[in-house]
Write a structure and sequence with these properties.
The structure is a single chain. This protein is mostly beta strands and about 325 residues long. Helix content is about 5%, strand content about 60%. It contains three helices and 18 strands. It has a 16-stranded antiparallel beta barrel with strand order 2-4-5-6-7-8-9-10-11-12-13-14-15-16-17-18. Strand 13 and strand 14 form a beta hairpin. The longest helix is centred in the N-terminal third of the chain and has 5 residues.
Length: about 325
């Protein structure tokens, strides 16, 4: 795991980038890179009908990134990433194009919202985690999205600014239930000594028949890296958001994450908590641990276990099961 990338909390962030890709074409002004992953994942948990049921979560992702120089300081870019799981339709995770330069990058299409950079502080596990970091659609990855992100060096420290606006129109959320119309913005400051912190805010129109008010959400995050150790915390406060297809008028949550790298193996633990403040109900309450071994930069294996602390009064017995995942991932 690249701890520096986590600790700087996307200090080198960009919209829709390829982190491990091979250049397949290049000339004097343009280049094209292809990357992706094959990831076998076996999920084991108890259900209402069986004990230790194994579910195949195997997936493949492919991404294509293009870049062309327009002037000495301005370039054009395009990015696509798709994900496929057996028995499901192809999911276009990213599909966008735009321009970039010293000012940052501006793209339009399907791309990440600005709150995603903050949840990345603690979303570091191979499978579990990020349960308290659920984002409104305008702050998450969505289409019809005009987004900006810029990364600026400040004497060895780094400032990352992000903002995006999702237009009202022919654009639905991931469940295809309603149009998304809203915005989000974030700022992250990462210091060379290992400390990084950031904050963000987002709003969007209500959730169709569920709600006519605006959904609002604020995030705060902090992390620190010291040698092979990394620790981070995330806090969120939200109004009129949807969790598990249920409208939650007032929610509050936090997540803590810690990792330690020992040679080629990374050990991670997280704690997630999210509550419905109006009804005094726990929506998320879990501890997760995992271990990932990197054989080389292209291949890794991992094991991840989640201890679900919810009980029947919170979400029902079936939803409160522990989970165990074994995975193998090949990056190209």
């Amino acid at each position: 795991m690249n701890k520096k990338m986590i600790a700087l909390a996307v200090a080198a962030a960009s919209l829709s980038t390829v982190t491990n890709a091979a250049e397949v074409y290049s000339d004097e002004t343009s280049s094209l890179a292809v990357g992706g992953r094959f990831e076998a994942r076996a999920l084991m948990k108890d259900t209402e009908t069986s004990s230790n049921k194994v579910t195949d979560q195997t997936r493949v992702r492919v991404n294509i990134a293009g870049k062309t120089d327009i002037t000495e300081s301005i370039y054009g870019l395009g990015f696509w990433e798709g994900e496929y799981k057996d028995g499901e339709d192809l999911n276009n995770r990213h599909l966008n194009a735009g321009i970039g330069g010293d000012f940052g990058k501006v793209v339009y299409g399907k791309t990440d919202g600005s709150l995603a950079a903050l949840t990345d502080f603690t979303d570091i596990m191979a499978y579990h985690g990020n349960e308290a970091g659920n984002k409104i659609d305008a702050g998450d990855r969505t289409g019809n999205n005009l987004a900006y992100i810029g990364s600026f060096d400040l004497g060895g420290n780094n400032l990352v600014l992000g903002a995006n606006y999702v237009f009202d129109g022919d654009n639905e959320n991931t469940a295809g239930e309603y149009d998304v119309n809203g915005y989000s913005a974030s700022a992250i400051y990462a210091m060379e000594m290992g400390l990084a912190f950031g904050a963000g805010y987002g709003e969007q129109d209500g959730y169709g028949a569920l709600n006519t008010e605006k959904a609002k959400q604020a995030f705060g995050a902090i992390s620190y890296t010291l040698g092979d150790f990394y620790v981070a915390a995330l806090y969120q406060d939200a109004e009129d958001t949807v969790v598990d297809d249920v409208l939650i008028k007032d929610s509050q949550g936090y997540e803590f994450a810690a990792s330690y790298t020992l040679g080629k193996t990374v050990f991670i633990a997280t704690y997630n908590y999210l509550e419905d403040k109006d009804n005094n109900i726990d929506l998320r309450d879990s501890i997760a641990v995992d271990a990932t071994h990197y054989f080389n930069k292209n291949f890794r294996t991992y094991a991840s276990y989640k201890f679900n602390n919810l009980d029947e009064k919170d979400v029902g017995k079936s939803a409160a099961s522990d989970e165990f995942v074994l995975g193998a991932r090949y990056d190209f």
